[in-house]
Specification:
The protein is of the alpha+beta class. The chain is built from 2 helices and 4 strands, in the order αββββα.
């Protein structure tokens, strides 16, 4: 965080919070870091509202630019 290394397993906590509560989530690709790594927020919606998170992620991609293949792909 803030340019400091974090343990890979720290990610499990954030994914677990959503998964354990059975909430739908969608990753919305919004760009890349200066090092070329993909960046995207996790959009979380209400229970059984999977289509809502997908729709929001689609609309966000339309505004920001969405997914772009990595160089050389």
């Amino acid at each position: 965080m803030n340019g400091k290394p974090r343990a890979y397993t720290d990610q499990v906590v954030w994914a677990g919070l959503v998964t354990m509560t059975l909430l739908p989530s969608t990753l919305a690709p919004v760009g890349r870091t200066p090092a070329g790594l993909p960046v995207g927020p996790q959009v979380v919606g209400p229970y059984l509202e999977d289509r809502t998170t997908i729709d929001f992620a689609t609309r966000l991609a339309d505004v920001i630019g969405g997914y772009t293949p990595p160089p050389g792909a």
